[in-house]
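Possible regression after last week's pipeline update?

I re-ran a chain I had predicted before the update to compare outputs. Posting the input and the new output here so someone can diff against the archived version. Not blocking, just want to make sure nothing changed silently.
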Amino acid sequence: PFSSLDRTKSVDNYEAVLDKFAQIRACAVLRTPTSEACPKAMQAAIDGGFKIVEFTLTTPDCLQHLSDCRAKHDGDVMVGCGTILN
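New output (post-update):
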């Protein structure tokens, strides 16, 4: 069943992510129309108490913002990215 999870580091890592979601039960999903608004909006979500955050891939410069956010908050906030395809 885990073969479709090609971006998962391991089954243990997958389980740890699920456990974190079960514990925290809320995730801020961020989509901004400009790159400049992105870090400010995500910081506001984190300052507001979110411990799991997601950048949408439709946000300009998403992957750079993801990298910057992980570097700044690694260990304190679970940071990811994705997008809804349908």
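Follow-up from reviewer: compared with the archived run. Residues 1-5 have pLDDT under 50 and may be disordered. Marking as no regression found.
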